Amino acid sequence: MAIHGIQARARRQIASGPRFTTVKMTSRGGIQITLTTTFSDNAEAGARALPGYVDEVIEGLSTAEKTLPCKLFYDERGSGLFDQICELDEYYVTRTENALMGAHAGEMAEAIGPGCLLIEYGAGSSTKIRSLLDHLRDPAAFVPVDISGEHLVRAADELKASYPDVEINPLVADFTGSFDVPAPLIEPARSVVYFPGSTIGNFAPGDASKLLKTIAERVGLGGGLLIGVDLDKDPDVLHAAYNDRKGVTAAFNLNLLVRLNREAGADFNLSCFTHRAAYNPESSRIEMRLYSDRRQTAQIAGHRFDFDMGESILTEYSHKYTIESFGRIAAEAGFQTRQVWTDADGLFSVQYLELD
Ligand code: AVI
After folding, report:
1. CB-ligand 1 contact for 198 (6 Å cutoff)
2. I need a surface site. Which of 82, 185, 223, 344 has the fewest CB within 10 A?
3. % of the chain residues with pLDDT over 70
4. pLDDT grade, residue 12 (50/70/90)?
5. Percent of the chain predicted with pLDDT > 90
6. Does ligand 1 have an atom closer than 6 angstroms to the CB of 118?
7. Could you give all domains of the chain from N- to C-terminal order, each with its CATH number?
8. Three-state DSSP class for residue 356
9. Regarding predicted confidence, which is higher, 330 or 15?
10. From the CA of 66, how far away is ligand 1's center (Å)?
11. What is the reported pLDDT for 273?
């Protein structure tokens, strides 16, 4: 994925749940790959020809506030729309993080230190990782982790060509599940997880804490986490970023229903739902919803869902942190904030944390 496409694919890993089983194999080029397969998808396809996520969708639409999982945004069309979001004038997130990486990767590499095993969650924005690899001193290995194997192997091959001295071991896996990182040939000085894009913001607070704890277990004492964290800011700036003038975010949100109609035989009336994103100041988060323009009914897999006029489906949270509020949830996982890089307007941060 040009830089944004890579990010979009990474997003597919958000909260994808525990339905995955891991199979190890070695590719011809000697790259160790862990393939992650949704066996539940296969089982369901045989029985009902429905995607494996349908039960989760039905469960979400059956709760008092109807919800849909944000991981479903990232089918091919949704990933393309996310790429477009990243280019929007109003969407400051991607360009600000890219600029921070471009300006400060040397300091980040200095903070990480020599000889690290670097593991990227939701790999890989090749621009960002290249900034880091350009500056890291004698990394033991780089392990990009992504749920999309095809993309991952291609991106890893390109990186290998540019960094022939770095051991690069791509791993196809869901970073929210459990997976083994291949041991590098050289004993690493420490393990560091790189988690860019502020994807952490799309996790509910409890799930974000859980993920940080699994990262802490993975890197161990003395290990580190370099993470992109979107910062709390003027609600008008946030409102514009998630309700853009061109309607790309609206199309991205509505694509959830397009996908359910196509893949799961649902019959959502697409012209009767409207995208709206609102900032919730109590929870410091953008809440994205699809609003029903009228009383209507939709069915999916034999389940019927009634919508009142104005009733909504919650589709995504995007939490915005302060340096302190993120420091607090990181501290619960044992991480101490070592260094923070922000832009002049305080829109976005890249943070380096260590496990003491
Ligand atoms: C992927 N994630 C960090 C994006 C965000 O800003 O929360 C997803 C997104 N949703 C709407 N616009 C972008």
Report:
1. yes
2. 344
3. 86
4. very low
5. 78
6. no
7. 7-88+236-319 (no CATH), 93-232+321-355 (3.40.50.150)
8. coil
9. 330
10. 20
11. 98
Tokens 């101490």 belong to residue: 336
Among 13, 81, 82, residue to substitute to test ligand 1 (most atoms within 8 Å of Cβ) = 82
> Which runs of consecutive H residues, i.e. helices, occur in the chain?
3-11, 39-48, 54-61, 76-87, 92-112, 126-135, 149-162, 205-219, 235-242, 248-264, 323-332
Helix/strand/coil for 86: helix
Residue 318 CA to ligand 1 centre (angstroms)? 6
Closest-lying ligand 1 atom to the alpha carbon of residue 316 = 10
- Give dist(CA 87, CA 83) in Å, integer: 7
Strands 116-121 and 190-195: parallel
| 274-299 residue pLDDT tens | 999 999 999 999 999 999 999 999 99
DSSP collapsed to 3 states, 47-76: HHCCCCCHHHHHHHHCCCCEECCHHHHCCH
Between residues 249 and 15, the one the model is more confident about:
249
Q: Give the tokens for residue 179.
A: 């997976």
CB of 321 sitting under 6 A from ligand 1: no
Q: Does the beta carbon of 197 lie inside 6 Å of ligand 1?
A: yes
**Distance from Cα 162 to the centre of ligand 1, integer Å:** 30
Cα 350 to middle of ligand 1, angstroms? 16
* Ligand 1 atom 1 nearest Cα: 199
pLDDT band at 18 (very low <50, low <70, confident <90, very high): very low
In this prediction, residue 39 carries a pLDDT of 33
